[in-house]
Amino acid sequence: MAVTKAAPRESVPDTPAARAPEGPRRLNSPLALTLLLVLMVVAQGSIRRVLSAPVMQSWMTVFVAVVVQALPFLVLGVLLSAAIAVFVPPSFFARALPKRPALAVPVAGMAGAVLPGCECASVPVAGALVRRGVTPAAALAFLLSAPAINPIVLTATAVAFPNNPEMVVARLVASLLVACAMGWLWQRLGRADWLRPPARAAYDGQSKGAAFWGSVRHDVMHAGGFLVVGAMAAATLKAVVPEEWLRMAAGNPVVSVLALAVLAVLLSICSEADAFVAASLSQFSLTARLAFLVVGPMVDLKLFAMQAGTFGRGFALRFAPATFVLAITGAVLTGAVLL
């Protein structure tokens, strides 16, 4: 029987032409930072002239103020989110909330009173609740109510309006009603594919301490980036909107409510500080200023960006406009009764 010999393998010379073609060189972070620093040094004169302009000074003031106000409460929310994800067993939420989603919504809305933070803190906490199996309707009610009815915010509102204590009650009632209404609306009309479950890095096999700090690092980097984007957008809009528009809008009851509602979205002020801004807008009616206080903690630029990053852009594009309309309606109805 003939034996067929295998053809000897040809040796491939190790030359640049024979090697596999390399992909395009990518711009890594250290190289990008170096190029940016070199560019800033070369163009420092032009940059100094641009930054000295009044518009840019206003932009930087608003941007820094939004970030500085929001960042501590964002960190607080991240810590609470990590604690919920790592240390709280999933069965706790099944026992704490009513079985029926329609009843879980108001319970979760009232539970928002225990979170001493702003809207930046409520987003990661709501994301952790969804990951833990809480019905999205209840988690969203918590997300909306927590920044507006917690003790710190209500105390700040009382201090800002010493001659109008009814503003505290009106803010509590209107915010809670809107949060519950949005939760029930999502329960009835919301679809599962509209809300992307928040991502969570896997920490299997790690200790609870390592998993906790890993979760904190993940959420700070994720939510912090969207906070910066939202703060930049708010600063840009604040720097170009003429102040004369506010004085013109205050004379019309309908326009004044809409103007302060839109202003709350654009300014993106944390709920711990928005009462003092509302109190300074004395040319507007109490109802219009109540709309500012109800809309701001539920719909603003940085909150929209953070919701889009946590739950998906499709969710934010549907949830934010509906919340905006319900917040204005709730503020007007509550103001007509209590103010």
TrEMBL record:
| InterPro entries with a match to the protein in the record | DUF318 (IPR005524), UPF0718 (IPR052923)
Keywords, comma-separated and alphabetical: Cell membrane, Membrane, Transmembrane, Transmembrane helix
Q: Where are the transmembrane segments?
A: 29-47, 59-88, 137-161, 168-186, 220-237, 249-269, 315-338
Which branch of life, at top level?
Answer: Bacteria
Region (Disordered) residue spans:
1-23
The principal location of this protein is membrane
Q: Pfam families annotated for this entry?
A: ArsP_1 (PF03773)
Topology of the protein relative to the lipid bilayer: Multi-pass membrane protein
Q: Where in the cell is it found?
A: Cell membrane
State whether keyword Cytoplasm applies. Answer: no
The Swiss-Prot or TrEMBL record describes its family as follows: Belongs to the UPF0718 family.
Instruction: Please identify the protein, giving its name as recorded.
Output: Permease
State the organism's lineage.
Bacteria, Bacillati, Actinomycetota, Actinomycetes, Kitasatosporales
